[in-house]
Amino acid sequence: MIDALVMTLGFEPGPLISAFASAVSRGLSEGARVIVFTAAFPDERSERAWLEFQRVVNMMEVPKKLGVEPELREIPLDDMASAILETRKAIHGLRRKKVKVAITGGMRALGIAVLAAVLLTEWEQEPEVEVYLEGRGVALSVPNLRKLIEVSGKCKDIIEAMRGGSPVKLEELAARLGRDRSTVYRRLRLLVEAGAVKRTRYGYQLTPLGFALAGF
Known about the structure:
Blueprint: E1 2-8, H1 14-26, E2 28-39, H2 44-59, H3 61-66, E3 71-75, H4 80-91, E4 99-103, H5 108-120, E5 128-133, E6 138-141, H6 145-154, H7 156-161, H8 170-177, H9 181-194, E7 197-200, E8 203-206, H10 208-214
Parallel strand pairs: 1-2, 1-4, 2-3, 4-5
Antiparallel strand pairs: 5-6, 7-8
Helix pairs in contact: 1-2, 4-5, 6-9
C-alpha cells in the first residue's frame, strides 16, 4: 500500500498518467498524498499536461473513493541548492510513510533536485524510485543510492576481489581476503541487499551494478 506518490510534471501527460495509474493498481492508502513538482515558471506545454492529467484522474473512481487529490508544487530552479532545499521541505512530512517517487518528466534540473532531496532525507523506509522514459511509457527502477554509497565504502575490498566476474564461493572469497567467513558473509549480505551482488548456485557474483561500483 502506497501512502504517498511524488512525481514531476513534464511537457507530456503520458508518463504522469502511467505512474499514477500504476500506483492506483498497486494500492493507494485512503487520503494518500500525491505531490507533483513542476518548475516555478509558466510553460504552456506543462500547463496543458497538468490539465489533461487532472481530467484523467477525475474520471477514475478509486482516487475519488479514497479522497486522493493530486497537488501541484512549484519549485524555483534559479539555484540548484535552493531547489533541493525547497523540495526537501515539501517531502519532509512524508518521511514516515511508504513513498513512491516517479520522475515522470520536466526539466532535467527538476529531476535532479527531486532525486537529491530524496537521497538527503532520512526515511523510515526507503522510497521506491522510478524514472520514466518520455514517449515510451517505460519506467526504469533506480537503485537505492544511499545503500550503495554505504556498502561501496564498507565492502570495497570484497567488490575488488570479485571483479573477475566468475561466481566465487564464500570460503574461497574469505581465503582471498584473509578474513573470517562470518565477516565476509555479513558484507556479502549487504551487497546482495543493495543489488550489487547476486547469489547463484555456483557462488556469489557481481551484478552490473556491482561492476559499476568496482570501476574499470
